[in-house]
Q: What sequence folds into this?
């Protein structure tokens, strides 16, 4: 199957047989998630587990999907179907630091355009792209529930609020 | 950012400014879990009655009476019953639940346990949006603390009532704030809404009776049990009791989360004084009072008018309470650009399940893009309204209605902003060059 071309959507070679493996600590965390749901409903853990797999592997890759399908008794296509619905699930590789700038109304009118322009200029990429060294991805995302402290952005799971250009510079310096 | 009560004693915000307010000790030192004890000595029907008397209406956006929702759960069902907290707060302009969970997580746990006791449920899930990971960590810690104190888990406080509380995470989908889509997501599927009926109270999570309540709704429950439904209702109005949190963002000097009694009589005073007025002494241009999904109000409909801040008052004033997310815009904002921004939001968040919403929101963005680029035509106003009309009331769930309302309100109420665009002119834009990428 090695000759199968990557799909345009995920940039991944689909239909690999490879199954991801995880450390005992991560497997324990996965079990903790599954134990929250009735045994016959373990599929419920799928979305929380996407985030675990993604954290461990950088993004939701095909071996990660195979692992989840096996674990939860699902077809591989079932897993992809759900994964592609949720905007936090990265089916393509993202930078080490995923900078997600909120672009919805409150942030937009409070200075998001200036912040976005500054970040993109400094990193030399457009929104939606990853720097060539794989360090940073910049995404424009919809409301992150931080409207009172707009403009804001999220790096990974960390909120950075009440942003100014100076604050952004400090943040980017600290991430290098 | 301000977090405070105005015109009433803080109830929802009673503990948020205390040091370590997220810990069990501080919560219990300030009356925490007393309501659970009190409720567990009451009969189930009496608890539901108190919630009915309180005139508590769902704080997520729809404003459905909570007591009535609870009473729809069939008492004789042999199935397991579920309590699900909707913490998928993703309505633009809304950020109140975040502060409740961050600073008062035990209030949410207590509210859920009282609901579980009243409805004979042994399992509660807190469905939190994935971006709020730090809140999930806070909730998990609070749950473990409560479990160690025998407040969560088996034989709570030595009784025969057992109940588990679990956190669950979403992964970035506005639609999962819709209760049936939330349940689909919680079951591990795409967040598609489901046909109603059957309503979740009869067939919800895993086809079992389920109550889905917003965070702020559930944190109100311990207050209602503590002071009695009637006393709590009297804080607000006859039809919507108690106090409510309003999230205020945009061009006010003091954005924040404000707790007001329901029926607070002065929306003008609220914006122009309580929230500090408009930044830089600019003029108020408009207010979206209930999260992005409601009709935008012109300043003339607020200034000099006595707009009462409750469900009925805002309807009279031409809008809705929604989730209580105020987005205040000043004269520098072009309403065509702000509406384009919101149309992009709804397009992105439409789940794609039904045609009117999937196609309609996509076309609206295409038309707004053309207009903003100077390609507007006079007939576009009618075209946009026609598309909205084809979405509103025809989509599978309320997301389509919301998308239509946000746009209809703007185009009907701010014709002076739309006119130059509709004649093919391109006026000053708040869109940055960066957006063209």
A:
């Amino acid at each position: 199957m090695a000759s199968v071309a990557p799909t345009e959507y995920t940039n991944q070679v689909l239909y690999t047989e490879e199954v991801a493996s995880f450390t005992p600590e991560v497997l324990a965390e996965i079990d903790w998630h599954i134990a929250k749901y009735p045994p016959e409903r373990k599929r419920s853990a799928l979305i929380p587990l996407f985030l675990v797999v993604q954290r461990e592997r950088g993004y939701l890759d095909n071996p990660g999907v195979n692992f989840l399908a096996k674990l939860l008794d699902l077809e591989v296509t079932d897993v992809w179907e759900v994964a592609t619905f949720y905007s936090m699930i990265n089916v393509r590789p993202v930078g080490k630091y995923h900078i997600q700038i909120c672009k919805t109304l409150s942030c937009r009118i409070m200075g998001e355009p200036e912040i976005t322009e500054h970040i993109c200029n400094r990193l030399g990429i457009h929104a939606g792209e990853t720097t060539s060294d794989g360090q940073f991805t910049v995404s424009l995302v919809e409301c992150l529930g931080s409207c009172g402290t707009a403009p804001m952005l999220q790096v990974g799971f960390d909120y950075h609020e009440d942003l100014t250009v100076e604050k952004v510079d400090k943040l980017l310096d600290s991430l290098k | 950012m301000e977090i405070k009560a105005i015109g009433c004693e803080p109830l929802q915000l009673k503990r948020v400014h205390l040091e370590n307010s997220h810990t069990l000790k501080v919560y219990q030192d300030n009356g925490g879990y007393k309501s659970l004890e009190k409720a567990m000595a009451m009969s189930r029907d009496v608890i539901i009655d108190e919630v009915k008397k309180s005139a508590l209406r769902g704080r997520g956006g729809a404003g459905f009476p909570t007591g009535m929702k609870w009473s729809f759960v069939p008492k004789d069902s042999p199935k397991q019953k579920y309590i699900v907290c909707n913490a998928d707060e993703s309505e633009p302009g809304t950020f109140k639940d975040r502060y409740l969970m961050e600073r008062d997580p035990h209030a949410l746990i207590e509210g859920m346990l009282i609901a579980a006791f009243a409805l004979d449920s042994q399992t509660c899930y807190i469905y939190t949006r994935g971006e709020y990971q730090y809140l999930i960590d806070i909730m998990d810690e609070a749950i473990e603390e409560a479990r160690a104190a025998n407040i969560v888990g088996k034989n709570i406080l030595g009784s025969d009532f057992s109940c588990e509380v679990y956190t669950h995470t979403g992964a970035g989908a506005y639609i999962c704030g819709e209760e049936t889509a939330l349940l689909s997501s919680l079951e591990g599927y795409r967040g598609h809404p489901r046909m109603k009926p059957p309503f979740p109270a009869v067939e919800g999570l895993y086809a079992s009776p389920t109550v889905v309540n917003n965070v702020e709704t559930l944190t109100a429950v311990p207050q209602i049990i503590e002071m009695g439904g009637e006393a709590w209702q009297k804080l607000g109005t006859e039809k919507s009791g108690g106090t409510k949190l309003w999230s205020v963002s945009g061009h006010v000097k003091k954005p924040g989360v404000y707790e007001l009694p329901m029926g607070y009589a002065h929306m003008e005073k609220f914006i122009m004084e309580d929230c500090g007025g408009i930044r830089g002494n600019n003029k108020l241009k408009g207010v979206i009072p209930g999260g992005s999904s409601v009709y935008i109000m012109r300043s003339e409909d607020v200034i000099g008018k006595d707009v009462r801040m409750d469900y009925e008052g805002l309807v009279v004033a031409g809008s809705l309470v929604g989730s209580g997310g105020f987005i205040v815009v000043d004269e520098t904002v072009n309403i065509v650009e702000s509406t384009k921004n919101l149309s992009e939001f709804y397009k992105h968040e439409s789940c794609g399940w039904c045609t009117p919403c999937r196609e309609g929101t996509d076309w609206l963005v295409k038309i707004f893009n053309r207009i903003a680029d100077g390609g507007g035509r006079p007939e576009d106003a009618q075209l946009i309204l026609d598309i909205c009309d084809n979405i509103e009331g025809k989509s599978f769930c309320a997301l389509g209605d919301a998308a239509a309302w946000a746009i209809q309100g703007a185009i009907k109420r701010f014709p002076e902003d739309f006119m130059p665009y509709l004649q093919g002119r391109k006026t000053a834009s708040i869109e940055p060059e960066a957006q063209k990428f």
